[in-house]
Amino acid sequence: MFTASLPGHAPVSLHRRSRGGRVLAFTFPGQGSQQPGMGEPWTSHESWELVEESSDACGRDVATLLCEADADELRHTRNSQLSTFVLSMVVLDAVERTGATLSFAAGHSLGEYSALTATGALAYDDAVRLVAERGEAMQVAADEQEGTMAAVLGLDDNLVAEACEATPGDVWVANYNAPGQVVIAGSPDAVAVAGDEAKSSGAKRLMQLPVGGAFHTPFMQPARDRLRKALAEVEIRAPSVPVVANVDARPRSDADEWRTVLAQQLTSPVLWRASLHALADLGVTTFVELGPGKVLTGMTKRTHKGASVLSVSAPAEIDAFMEALATDAPAAPTVMGGENLYVTERLIVSPCAGIFTLGAGVSDGQQIRVGDVIGHVAEEEVRSAFAGTVMGIMAVEGERVTARQAVAWLRTADGT
């Protein structure tokens, strides 16, 4: 995971399950949530360093996409997917610097890659390259087969499906998003006809989406074939917590399943409403959207009225996020295996992905100085940015860790 050192926020105790019963699910947006200039508020934040790493990984200028691209440029699939994914990871990194931990994750379409990266199933550089390849493959498929998508508002799911079935031509349900919100996709003419059919059945509105293709339909079969090859070339590990899959709304923790699931997702409808129900059934009490916009926040509110729903898309929202979680935090801290962070505690994180080896003589209670080496990951030194007492080693000798995963935690004398 992207766990990193705690910045200068007020202390708050965060658990996978708080004493007040709060269980967090992190959710990540997909294509269509992008906005011009969405990266600008983050440029001076420590988490912005991920943008440079993403550019190195995929050979594209991601910072320009996040800060300078206009709406038309971002509408292109190859641009919207990469920029949305990277900003979601910047937000995730910033949130994890507060010490927040998740119990479950899910992502809407593209956001599924964010969820898998957040849970350690995908290494960050691999995920960047996969997302870039996915966006390119879907762009090519969309250019070869003209398509569009539209949201049908105010009509039951089954009536929307019937409208598509009654329409001559190519149109299908692509997303079951929330009560009264279903997305259809296909050829522009067929989508228009199906939209009229839905209106005649009682739909309140048909809203065109700012995307450049008919995603999650058979139109994406060429992209699915191309993506399958890319997926075969990367390592996919078991996620640290279950990730609810788009294709069947099932929580999955088996690494072997995800290659098939991610490829299948391109031509299958996104079962987001069912995914939200699955998360609630698993005991999730707080849904936290991380990334640009608040599309998923709105869907969650429509699906689970009264649920606790939070979102972070800009640095200014982090304090509100922490204050909201602190509402259920216990008055006295309870040590939970390194999941709690306080003002005098800091994490030492891995500089890269690889196998962790603990340094000779490093143990609980040891005093270390700034710059001391506590171990190695893939032959890279793991150095402490802080001076203090080792309170716990969080990675197991020989464990494969991800970049920025916490491997040890310290208690400092003065909180610096």
Q: So what's the overall shape?
A: elongated
- The helix content is 25-40%
Largest sheet: 6 strands, mixed
| Number of separate helices | 13
Cα distance spanning the termini: 23 Å
Class from secondary-structure proportions: alpha+beta
- Low-confidence segments, ≥5 residues, pLDDT <50? 1-20, 329-344
Mean pLDDT: 86
Radius of gyration: 22 Å
Strand content: 15-25%
Q: Overview of this structure, please?
A:
- This protein is 34% helix and 20% strand.
- Strand 7 and strand 8 form a beta hairpin.
- The strands form four sheets. Strands 8-7-2-1-9-10 form a six-stranded mixed beta sheet, sandwiched between helices.
- The N terminus is likely disordered.
- The chain is built from 13 helices and 18 strands.
- Helix 4 packs antiparallel against helix 6 and helix 9 packs antiparallel against helix 10.
- With 416 residues, it is α+β, with helices and mostly antiparallel strands.
- The relative contact order is 0.16.
Summarize the helices and strands and which ones pair or pack.
Blueprint lengths: L23 E5 L20 H10 L3 H6 L3 H5 L1 H20 L7 E4 L3 H8 L5 H21 L3 E6 L3 H9 L5 E8 L2 E6 L1 H13 L4 E4 L12 H11 L11 E2 L6 E2 L2 H11 L6 H10 L4 E5 L4 H9 L4 E5 L5 H9 L18 E5 L4 E5 L8 E2 L4 E5 L2 E4 L4 E6 L6 E2 L4 E6 L5
Parallel strand pairs: 1-2, 1-9, 2-7, 9-10
Antiparallel strand pairs: 3-5, 3-6, 4-5, 7-8, 11-18, 12-14, 12-17, 13-16, 14-15, 16-18
Helix pairs in contact: 1-4, 1-6, 4-5, 4-6, 6-9, 7-8, 9-10
Name a few traits of the molecule.
single chain; 416 residues; alpha+beta; 4-stranded antiparallel sheet; 13 helices; 18 strands
